[in-house]
Amino acid sequence: MEFFALEPAGELNVYLPQQELYGELNAKGISVATARDVFEAAFGLDGPVFTLISSKGSLLPENATSTDDLLVWNWIPIFSERARELLLSLGAMPGDFARCTVGAEPRHLHLPRACLDVVDFERSTFGHFLPVCVDESLPFRIEALALKDMASQEQMPGVFRPVNRLGQEFSELVVTGSLRSKWTLERLSSARFRPLN
Hints:
Blueprint: E1 3-8, E2 13-15, H1 21-26, H2 32-43, E3 49-53, E4 70-73, E5 76-79, H3 81-89, E6 97-102, E7 105-110, E8 125-133, E9 136-144, E10 159-160, E11 174-176, H4 177-185, E12 191-195
Parallel strand pairs: 3-6
Antiparallel strand pairs: 1-11, 1-12, 2-3, 4-5, 5-7, 6-7, 8-9, 10-11
C-alpha cells in the first residue's frame, strides 16, 4: 500500500488574528486535542475565523474567497466541503472535523479525535530529529513510513495522523494511494502528495 504526506500546494495562506492563542496552541507541541480545546474555548462551535493571505504576505479583503480545497494553518489542515466529503468517504469520521471560516466561506479544520500509534520507528526513516532531553531525540518529518503491523495496512483509513514515541502527533497528515487517486479524479485542488514509501 502506498502512503503520502498531504501538503498544501496553493498560492494562498491563512492567518489567525488572535495572536494570544498561539502560545496556548503550541504549549504542548503538535497536539490535536490541545488545538481542539483552545479553539472550542475561544470560538465555540462556530470555530475560528481565518484571514486569507497572498503568497507575498499581504492580507486579502475580509470577504475574499479561495477555490483551494486544502489550506494549512500552522500544522492544521483546513479542507473545503468537497475535500471533507472525500475524506469521510475514505474512513475519516465526522467528529474529526471542526468548523471554521476562511475569508468569507465555511471550511473544516481536520482535528481527528484519534491519532494512530502505527509507526515502526526502527524501519521508518525521518528527515530530522529534535532533541527533547539528554539521551532522547524526537523523530520529525517522516521520509519513509513503515507500519508496526504490516498485516493491518489494508485496514488503514484513507487519512490518518500518526503519533511519535512520546505520544505527540507528527506534523504530517498521512493519506493512502486511494485517497490520492480520488483527489485527482474528483479534480480537487491545491494539494501535493509527498511519497512516504
